[in-house]
Amino acid sequence: MDSSSISSIESLVNEIKKEMFSNQEFNTFLTPISAYDTAWLAMISYNNQEKAINGHSFSGPMFESCLNWILNNQNEQGFWGESNGENLPTISSLTATLACMIALKKWNVGETNIKKGLKFIHANTEILLKENSQQFPRWFTIVFPAMVQLAKSVGLETIFVNGSERLLSDVVMKRKVILESEKLMDMTAGHDQPLLAYLESFPNYFVDQKDQILKHLSEDGSLFQSPSATAQAFMSTGNQKCLEYLMSIVHKCPNGVPSRFPVDEELINLCMIDHIQRMGLANHFNKEIEQILGQVYENQMNNQNEYLSEISTLPERLFKDSLAFRLLRLQGYKINQGSVCWFVRQPQMRAYIEKNQERFTCVMYNVYRATDLMFNGETEMEKVRSFARNFLESSMKVVNNEDNLLLLPSLQKVVYINFTFLLLMRKIHSFS
Known about the structure:
Elements: H1 3-21, H2 35-42, E1 51-53, E2 56-58, H3 64-72, H4 92-106, H5 111-131, H6 138-153, H7 162-181, H8 210-215, H9 227-237, H10 240-252, H11 265-278, H12 286-302, H13 314-330, H14 338-341, H15 347-355, H16 357-370, H17 379-395, H18 411-414, H19 419-431
Antiparallel strand pairs: 1-2
């Protein structure tokens, strides 16, 4: 290999390292931007504080960068939001596209974008609803009818005919069942989030219930760490802590916001290492991998007896612990089996996992992979392996499209890597 090829490889590696391991900006390689949440931040005005420009006053968007992101990031097919591996829209693109059009309509910009978005909605709603009609994701059932209603209220001509109208009615009826059967803060119904976490879907309900919203704000000012729900909380209450939370997101993520903030950066780094190793490129990142795993190990030692405060965080905690265990043992660290076996000692947690199969399928798969590295005599690991195997065998009989790891529709979003990143990685691999 000549010196120019070596130089090219080193340049690519340094470019990727800068993108992946820089703490200066939000890492979109592994955690994608949420068009839906970005749209909700774009809807926020200057809280009725007017700005004067050229002698004229107006109330503009508080987070103009979010509005600009919407204007500049519409898919060629006319939608915003996720697409699958074939660049086809997913069901979440319906809610994201409606939210983005609502934001544009509010500020009277992006007329061309809105026309393309409406064309997409009219052409694809029936197709996407029919594909998911056997079991609509819970979040979609709650949010989609609300977005349709809000779109109509701002003057967007959303037209649903024939099959799409019947399917929309089905979603509306399912939403009604959820609202009638669940309490706003019911954390025992087997879902990651209570209804209040979708506050933006119930703005009128809370007009006179500001105290109810403020009561459930987190210490960081967020409502369940959801940018969209917190945006509505701020618009409903004007709470300063909500505003500070939203401003911190935009400061950290100036080019579009994630669906949850703050993200667990340690988990993101672990997922990144896992992907690098799977692709056979770990030798290019030895220093970075060792630094990250060294810090993870130190944190594990300092937090061995950390208590799980919320049962709703169990999927994330267990996924992270099992991934950390596997990567640390592969790297030669002396990590105790208890760091991944703790849940099996608690009957209520085992029962909770078994009751909520759709939420733990990906988690248990990673737990099972971790048990591949158990040593002789680790009896608790054997119990965990048996539990995970039985769980996975049982879950294979269940068809469900709402695997909610990390509050996301699928594991694919947790370990998301964009196409540019893959191309660079493959190019490096071809020179190796």
